[in-house]
Amino acid sequence: MNKVVLGIERLEESIIRNASIGLVCNHASYNSEFCHLIEVVRKYGGDIRVVFSPEHGLYGVSYAGEKVSSYYDKDFNVDVYSLYGESKAPPTDLLRSLDFLIYDLQDVGVRWYTYISTLYYSVSSSSKAGIPLIVLDRPNPINGVIIEGPILEERFRSFVGIAPIPVRYGLTVGELAKYYSSVLGLGGDVRVIQLEGWKRSLWYDDTGLDWIPPSPNIPTWETAIVYTGTCLLEGTNLSEGRGTTVPFFILGAPWINAKRLSRELNKLKLLGVFFRLVYFRPYYSKYSGEVCGGVYIHILDREKFRPFTTIVYALKKIKEIYPRDFSWKKHNGNYIIDILSGTDKVRMIVEGDTDIGKVIEEWNRHLREYRSKTSRILLYG
């Protein structure tokens, strides 16, 4: 296996030396020799004026959805400006004092993962400030071939759904920055330091790279696969496994009979997956301290497995079996499931108001249109 060379490892010293720089990075912004981006830039003689941190903070210790404050970091001796606090966009007046902004965050290839919303605002703000945005590219861990799920509808736009792209969008962050800039019209001077040796068909374990968990509940790269579907459970009263050692691989609730659910879900004969009965007790989050019955998702064939579609079918079945126990969660009067999925069609399918086959056919038509749009910004074969 030939090791993929990261964008951070192809950053040239001549670009950095004596430049005034802002960084968008976190605890996973390391090269393959475990040298952090802050250390790399300083070694090359760059003047780091500010570090912008995403959700979970510079060190990845804040919980999902928890506001993060700006502060002075004594370990790295740098001002840290939070992009998950009072503001989610780098301020243009601050950016105008820089020569350029560098973005280096490991993504998971899923629309509701907020690092790509931070990327969106990095593209937008650098464009408004008139400075280049340099994106140090990283692999899409769940490959760049398979795309899945609905395109975000504008009325459901939020920080967990920032742009009209599919749930599983099949691009690297460098390509996505180009998509934001040229296809969605954010403009700006986006420069991608490309990966070397990466192909669209590669999964993360094909890259030869070590995985650094980019956020607390994505401990393994494989978690990103199931997360593409099971994150939808955040919009329900089902546990998605937060507060266990295998977040997003398990789902359940105290009122579920694990054996029955496992049997009913396996009867669906969904491709590439097996549902094993499981009981678990979360130590925080939903049903903390309570024993939950449910299933563990075993990926049998990752090329055939479609996590988003799988969970839509699973939710529909759970609603059928437990109509009085199952419920949706809301935030500010809106169904969280609609915000996450970028449409109300998932909820309508589960409620039995819409035919799942027709909806998936519609989604697939939109995916073909999206793939056509991405063809002009692809950087890798």
Q: Can you give a write-up of this model?
A:
- The protein is 28% helix and 15% strand.
- The protein has eleven helices and twelve strands.
- Helix 8 packs parallel to helix 10 (345-351).
- The two termini are 18 Å apart.
- It has two domains: 7-215, Uncharacterised protein PF07075, DUF1343 (Rossmann fold, 3-Layer(aba) Sandwich), CATH 3.40.50.12170; 223-343, Alpha-Beta Complex (Aspartate Aminotransferase, domain 1).
- It is of the alpha/beta class and 381 residues long.
**Whole-number tally of structural domains:** 2
Adjacency order of strands in the biggest sheet: 3-4-2-1-5-6-7
Quickly give the CATH architecture of the largest domain. Answer: 3-Layer(aba) Sandwich
Spans of at least 5 consecutive residues whose pLDDT stays below 50 are none
